[in-house]
## 1
Amino acid sequence: AIPISDLLLWIPLAGETTSATLGATPHDTLELLRRITVLRGTGLAVADVDYLLRGGSAAVSALAFTDTQAANAAQAISDAIAKLATPPDAPTVATIAIGVLATATSTTANVIAPLYPATATTPPSQATIAAIARGAALYTALHATEAEFAYIVANAAVFGWLDPSNLPTTATSPYAPFEALLRAVKLNHRQSARTPRLFDVLAAWQGPGGLPADPATAINGRAATSTSPALPSLATALGAASAADVVALAAAGALNATAPSLTAAAQPGTLADMATLAAITDALDLAARYALGGA
């Protein structure tokens, strides 16, 4: 059972900001319950999810980076800079700040570096420090590797998932991009024993001449030619027993997945869409459970 006080917070976090559509149709109610299940499936308390997604509940979230911690980090950065013999350049300031924030957030420089403002030329403000710490808290919550996290931050705009380096502080929950992020990490973990993983495939598609023109090429991959680079198999990355199963499921009427797109607005329904890939893997898992073929 969910306490009423928690439910009243889960509802807006699930993207339901008013009661106007709540229960308007059975489908609306089922979708709301599905979203709450997704959020609770992170294993985080409702206050922690609120802190990560909206910057809310900071006073009660176990993940929150306090004003005192931000002030102490800012002072530590200032003290380190003051010890230098000459005024530091921007890269030196960034190196000092990243090191201090890695310690303050109990992460590493490889986690903080993607979150650190690329154009910063002066020491970060307390507000910037707090935002970076919030992104670091999301890294910990995702159970991602440092390499995964760097890819996530660098490619949030490309694939439409939540950007840990630019988390919102508004009353509106970024539920849809957060679910896309959760799906991306889960999909990337499907292939744990060998490469390629999903992010390897996506990165290959982003290279020169790498975007497949049709679903079959995306799913099967291809060998390098004199004019085209080699592409890893999406089917392998998704942990499929055979590429033929993925081809069959992707072409199924309910999905009818199309060739991948690197334009976020055009991605829904393509093989670069996290929701589409999640639907394919759900079907793969169901087929495996009942010893069915993808066709």
## 2
Amino acid sequence: RRALRIWPLYYLALIIGFLLLPSVTLFGPGLGSPEWQQVMQKYALPFATFLGNFSLLNSQAPPKLPFTMTALWSISIEEQFYIAWCLTLCRLNQPRTIGRLLVLAGIGSLAFRLWIRTQSDDIAAYYNNTFSHLDPIVAGALLGLLHSQSRLPKVAYPLLTSIGAWALLIFCLPSLFLNGPTAPWFFSLEAGASALSLLAALTDPRAARLLSRPWLVSYGRITFGLYVFHLLGLNLANWLLWKWNPFATPLQFWVARLLLGLPITTMLAVVSWNTLEKPFNNLRHRLSRVNQQIQG
């Protein structure tokens, strides 16, 4: 079911990034050029097999991945989790054992970030590594495990606590811009804020009502498309401004990214949802109903 939700748009994004955009020489080397061949040799197979993040661990080694595709590395980590999580659940059937394993994975991720900072000055070796991003995976898996056991932790005022956690995260953004996302604690804080938001949605009726508003639900359906296409939308906004005024100031480019990038990205995501993702999503739900009937 997750494959039907993710794979169609993901592989379409690979086709657009590796073949379509190079064919019109937008935002990368031209199709068939030596630079394009180097890009294909280094990145095509890893990204097609959800190992793309590992192909980016050395940011100094040429060639560079086209900028419009650089966000896709995180989808590799997501798919790696789905595979590893399924295998873990097949091997282990004791919730307590699984919980302990998840806690160890979270601690190990923080320790890994602290260690790798001492081993390499290359941000890619730190930021694009699967083992640097286990915190949110662990937090979500733990909440899912506790929810399945009806043992979700009780937090006083979960919605307000979640808002407070995100406020703290925003307060720490200056550190993000100064250091990049390399501060070892930043991913843990981000995972904690996300976990509190999910906990609020599961336990606080006010949060559930807020998140059930139709416009939020509709926007939530296209969030995957927004993520996949946001760099393309921003680059198209820059390109349009450059065509209109090649001598635009950096401030004008920033405003263009904001005023043009968001609607362009939203349009691409809406088209993607209605023409590609929605049909596969409907098939996903039909398969779920068939599976429930078989089990019944």
## 3
Amino acid sequence: LNWAGGYPGLLGDGDTGLTFGGAAGYAVTDVPNGFDVNAVTFAHAAGTVTLTGGAFDLAGTAPVVTVDGAGSAVVGGLNGVPAVVAGQNLFSALTLNAAGGLTVSGPLGGNTTNGAGFFVGFRGTGGGTGTLALGGGGTTGFLTLLNRTTTITAGPLNLTSDAVEASPPVQPTSQPGRFAVEVGGSLTQSAALTVAAGAVVNTSGTVAVAPVAGAAAGVTATVLVRGAGAELNAGGTGLLSTGGRLFVGYAGAGALTVDQGGVVTAAVVQVARIRDAAGDVIVDGPGSRLSVPYN
């Protein structure tokens, strides 16, 4: 379905695909809440396509929002409700393949669990240079970020996964939902997350920066918590392998910078968790703080 110039009067389902093309940007302001869609693709050449009104329900098998063009996209909200597959973590993909960026101005929501011990969340992917911007807060199970650049501009964004670290703690590839937040995971592409001034990220479990081993030389994962009111809180109360841990360089090369009044809190912080991993932590400037109450 190619949709432009207004809501077409359809309810959608888990097989529906929407494509937004054209040479320039435009706005659709009457997206209904509860519009089930399996794939939303932005392929316009320039400008910004803005979809507001309600939130899309990303449904069906392997639901995805994709930016394939040089133009950027803004969506009002996304609910992850992928088709149930028992015994695994499930995700909706946010894929940036080109120069265009994707902004989610409304909340992330939808299902958070898939039975006991498994979670539902979102996964940033793609080799494009555009930025994934999350500006509406919300609650979801986990956030796995393999794409180049992600910025969280508002909140609170709550990640509810409290998955336990595997034992032994070595994983060769990224596994969505293994941690509440993963930054990095590609063996060939660096990843960066910025928590901007005023944005708050709360997790029930672990935050892992550079979660996989074996990446090519120069591939890194970085987290920047910058500005007054910027917070990253690795929650939970676990002191061993459950919630409240922040790994900077879990298995690869990772870095954390907290500056200009940003605050990071975790029950435990570990730098270079796995053998041959590397990690750097910088806390700089008035009001900036890394709080580790149990270390």
